[in-house]
Specification:
Blueprint lengths: L4 H9 L10 E5 L2 E5 L4 H10 L10 E5 L8 H16 L4 E4 L4 H7 L8 E4 L13 E4 L2 H10 L1 E5 L3 E7 L8 H12 L8 E5 L1 H4 L3 H9 L8 E4 L3 H8 L20 E6 L6 E3 L7 E3 L10 E5 H4 L2 H11 L9 E5 L3 H9 L2 H7 L3 E2 L20 E4 L15 E4 L2 H10 L6 H4 L5
Helix pairs in contact: 2-5, 6-8, 11-13, 11-14
Bound molecules: 3-isopropylmalic acid (IPM) and iron/sulfur cluster.
3-isopropylmalic acid binds next to loops.
Length: 424
Amino acid sequence: MGMTMSEKILAKASCQPSVKAGDIVWAQVDIALMHDLLGPWLVDGGFKRLGGKLYDKEKVVIVSDHCTPPATVQQADILKFTRDWAKEQDLSYYYEFEGPCHQVIAEHGHVRPGRVILGTDSHTCMAGGLGAFATGIGSTEMIGVLLTGETWLKVPETIKIVWEGELPEGVYAKDMVLKTIKDLGHAGATYQALEFSGSAIQNLSIDERLVLSNMAVEAGAKTGLIEPDEKVMEYLRARGVTDDIEFFKSDEDAEYIRTLHYNASELEPQVACPHEVDNVHPVSSVQGVKVDQVYLGSCTNGRINDLRIAAKILKGKKIAKGIRCLVVPASQHIWMQASKEGILDILTEAGCIVNMPSCGACGGFTSGVIGAGEVVMSSSNRNFRGRMGSPKGEVYLGSPASVAATALEGKITDPRKYLLEGVL
Ligand SMILES: CC(C)[C@H](C(=O)O)[C@@H](O)C(=O)O
Ligand code: SF4
């Protein structure tokens, strides 16, 4: 019997010729990722009581992103603790004020096909878009990883998600993943891996593939993998990775617990309505809902391609009166690129506020929180009650194009209206 990508990576990580779904393995961890909010200040006590010696200072990566820039003294204290801890442990890789951790570790070449990446953040699964087995763990579990470089994992069953055909203009990876989550349900893939495949996936840029993997956890999945290809190598080479890299691909006769088939050419823009990510409807049935704020950013959809799409829609126009449009590039690198391309000027002239790369507004941690009764259209990955502030607020999720079109009209709007002349 053949093996899936997850099975192959976990066989390698546990030094076995083969493993199958359901096996419990001791896996060696290639990258242990922590961020400020769920990092050192939580693990330090247990870590020190158990010896306090890191398994490998080259493999532990910390990114301060959730408390940046700090809005309260408590956040400033957490940030300081994190920074001091990274210094005390003499870590080779500590990043702060650069953007959300998942984007930052991808840009710095820490994410590579075949690696096992465990992080104290649920969206660690984003690294699956580059072919890594990546998943979120709790801070307590992280203590064991920091000390030993290993942890036990149950090899997940895999659900295959096949997208064939060509995406129509104005429809993006975000719409694909929202549709997939709608069908799976927000707990429909619990402890299972998603594997995205098919011609529509192969045709996606790396930036777009990362959107799919990022949101795998919103269906409860352990991870969301995409078979690596030459595009992945180009992405890594552009980020200074020169090593030879082994690709782990699923065998033809690998066993899947379930397969879902989709035709991308039939898809229309999708919107997740409050307060669950699987409460997804085509934009045509949600349009007209009035918003107070739009948010374009996050590790899900704050990359350069996302900002380019928004700039295309907003160029030479003004956002609707009375609403706020927060734009947060997903990293400093993306900020600089957007600045070079004149995108930040276009967005600012349209009336948007461009904030520094951070998790701050995505989860209502440091900025952009909403009050009772306020409504947001967001390009992020979660719309849980209270996600961006008041539990009496409402968050809708859509693609960057849907977010930009909504900013123009002040109400949820089909982006194809601005991208395709004469179609709507
Ligand atoms: C703060 C943390 C619990 C969280 C996560 O793990 O995903 C955050 O990054 C998010 O997106 O909600
Ligand atoms: S989902 Fe938002 S809060 Fe969570 S890591 Fe990504 S940008 Fe940060």
